Amino acid sequence: MKVIILLILGIGLLPTVSAASHSIRYVYTATSGIPDFPEFVNLGILDGMQIDYYDSNTKKVVPKQDWMAKAVGSDYWDRETQNSIGREKSFKANIDTAKQRFNQTGGVHVAQMMFGCEWDDETGVTRGFNQQGFDGEDFISFDLKTLTWIAPKPQAVITKNKWDNNKAGNEYWKNYLTQECIDWVKKYVDYEKSSLMRTVPPTVSLLQKTPSSPVTCHATGFYPSRVMVTWKKDGQDHHEDVEMGETLQNDDGTFQTSVRLNVKPEERKNNKYQCVVQVAGIDEDFIKDLTEDTTSIGPIIGVVVAGLLVIAAVIIGVVIWKKKSKRGFAQTNTSDTDFDNSERAGQMI
C-alpha cells in the first residue's frame, strides 16, 4: 500500500499539455488478484483534471467537478451508470481472455483501455488515440490513418484480425476520435472556463497532536487554487520555524493546503499567533487565532489518503504502462455526455 501511494504522489495520470492544447481522455481499468481494490474502475479526465468516476464497488457514475455536474442532466448519470455496469462485465471477461492467451492463471493482472483526443485551440490541430494494455504492456492500438489495429504481441493477433474485419466498428472509431470527441472537448472547455470565474471561500482549522507538537493551519474547500497562508505573531508576519505544505486538489475541484508552525508552549502563552488565509479573487482575509482549543491532526491525514486511494487501482497499471509504452499514455473511449460508446468501449479482446 505504501508503494502505491508513493507512485500516486510521484507520477501523475497524464503528461502536461500546453496552454493552447486541450484533451479529454478516458481510462478503463480492470484488475484481478488485488485485495481491497475495485475490480473495475472507469474515469474521465479533461486537461489532466478528473471529471467523473465509477467503480465496481459503488456501481454509480458520479461527477468529480461542480461544473461537470451542472453541464449535463441527471439522466446522463443514470445512463452512464448502466453503461459502466455493462463495461465492467466486459472488461472482467477481457482479463480472463487475456490470461488464457498468455497461459496465466493466478496472480495480479491489470487490463486497461485508454482513449480520447487532443485539440489545439490556436492551430486547430487534432489527434485521436485508442490503445489497450495488459499487465503494463501495450496489447493493441488503433491506427487512424489506415483504420486498422496494431498488435505488438502475438497474443493480440487474434483480436487484430477480428477487429480489422469489423469495418463498421473501425469507421465508428474514426468518426468518434476525429469529430465527436473533439466537439465534446470544445464544449467541456467552455463549461470549465465558465466555472473558473467563481470563487469559493476556505474552511480554516488549526490542528495539533499534542501541546508540544507543531500547529498545522489547514485550509480546504477554496477556489481558485491561488492562495497565501501565513502566520502572524503579535500582528506581524512570522516566518521563523514555518513549513509550507503543497496545494492539493479535492475530489469536488476545490483545493486544500496547510502550513505548519513550530512554536514552544511558553512562546504560545506569551504571544498572540494567528493564521491568515488569502484566496485570489476574494477580498476578505480568513483569520484563525491560535488558542488552547486546537483539535487532533487526524482529519488532515484522513482527507489526503482517502483522495489518493480513490485512484490507486488505476495507477497500478498506468504507472507501469507509461514506463514501457513508446507511445506514451494510452487513451480510451468512455461515454461522454450525449453519446453511448458502451458497445465499442466494452468490446471483447
Automatic annotation (TrEMBL):
**Cellular compartments per GO CC:** external side of plasma membrane; extracellular space
Which species?
Esox lucius (Northern pike)
Q: Where is this region: Disordered?
A: 330-349
State which residue ranges cross the membrane: 297-321
User: What InterPro entries does the annotation carry?
Assistant: Ig-like_dom, Ig-like_dom_sf, Ig-like_fold, Ig_C1-set, MHC_class-I_related, MHC_I-like_Ag-recog, MHC_I-like_Ag-recog_sf, MHC_I/II-like_Ag-recog
The Ig-like domain extends over 202-291
Q: What is this protein called?
A: Ig-like domain-containing protein
Q: What is one Gene Ontology biological process annotated in the Swiss-Prot or TrEMBL record?
A: immune response
- At the top level, the lineage of the source is Eukaryota
Key words, A-Z: Glycoprotein, Membrane, Signal, Transmembrane, Transmembrane helix
**Signal peptide start-end:** 1-19
